[in-house]
Design goal:
The protein has a single domain, classed as Rossmann fold, CATH 3.40.50.300. The longest helix is centred in the last third of the chain and has 23 residues. A hairpin with a 2-residue loop joins strand 4 and strand 5. The chain contains ten helices and ten strands. The chain has 287 residues and is α/β, with parallel strands linked by helices.
Length: 287
């Protein structure tokens, strides 16, 4: 049956077990659709399950239960090697390069390894790697940099460059703007927007920042304690949230955005009381 979905996760369940045999249910009966060409936002507090969901979307983490349909094919029961092949064009952009690159090798080494997997001729590896860095706003010399030598914004750009090496159809971005200042956040969002347009891909944007997600994404999924609390268009979630949890997220987002706008207009630093308010809000959500 024809579908506009490039990825479907049906009734996904994932449990982590610690060395002390303590089990934590990270995802509980979660079903998600990613539509062709859309930007899907996933928001929630720490521990809500959003990163676990993103990793399952790219095949870097296996679910305990549930079905995965990728590009119209049910790949749930495939053997690991075959499943990895199916997920080859579904990539994750990490917040820090330590998760995307081997710390003992340069950024260029990592990108060239993926280019080799794409059967790029050896004599073209370096020029292609330079081209990918240029697309992501990094000069050629960064090919010789190690992951730990890069700033936050540079790290994200390097991770994007490696992700697009395989010409992905799905790009999952996990908290890529979290450690960046407002200016660099804007630059990275613009980069992702350009990448989506040039490569005509579908994108998942995982973040704790509902204000940012609402501006960048077509649809939003709100995660709470391993479940989907609410989902809908960005406009629906921001203007008419239905669950108490989503309402709290929206109210907090609007309050912070309003306060920062006033402070910015006055040329003053962000209110010191905001950190305290953030902590109080986090405790309210956990109650």
């Amino acid at each position: 049956m024809a579908t506009d979905n490039v990825l479907e996760l049906n009734h996904i369940r994932k449990t982590y077990t610690s060395k002390n045999k303590i089990s934590t249910l990270a995802l509980n009966d979660v079903s998600v659709e990613l539509r062709m060409g859309e930007v899907l936002g996933i928001v929630g507090e720490s521990g809500s399950g959003k990163t676990t969901l993103g990793r399952i979307m790219t095949g870097s983490l296996a679910q305990d239960e549930g079905h995965i349909i990728l590009f119209g094919n049910d790949i749930t029961d495939l053997k690991p090697k075959k499943k990895a092949e199916e997920f080859f064009h579904s990539r994750m952009v990490y917040q820090i390069p330590q998760e995307a690159f081997d710390q003992k090798h340069t950024i260029g080494d990592g990108i060239r390894d993926d280019l080799k997997a794409m059967k790029v001729p050896r004599k073209e590896l370096n020029s292609k790697a330079v081209e990918l860095l240029d697309v992501c706003g990094l000069p050629q010399e960064y090919l010789e940099h190690y992951p730990f030598e890069m700033s936050g914004g540079q790290s994200v750009r390097a991770c994007v460059a490696r992700a697009i090496t395989v010409e992905p159809e799905i790009l999952v971005c996990d908290e890529v703007t979290r450690a960046l200042d407002a200016t660099e956040q804007k630059n990275i969002i613009q980069l992702l927007f350009n990448i989506k347009r040039v490569y005509n891909l579908s994108m998942v944007f995982i973040s704790h920042d509902l204000n940012l997600v609402s501006k960048f994404c077509d649809r939003i999924i709100v995660m709470e304690n391993g479940k989907i609390a609410e989902q809908g268009s960005a406009k629906e979630i921001m203007e008419n949230p239905k669950t108490d949890y989503a309402k709290k997220l929206v109210e907090h987002t609007l309050l912070v955005h309003s306060e920062n706008a006033v402070i910015g207009a006055l040329g003053l630093p962000r209110a010191a009381s905001q950190a305290k308010r953030d902590e109080e809000h986090r405790k309210q959500l956990e109650e």
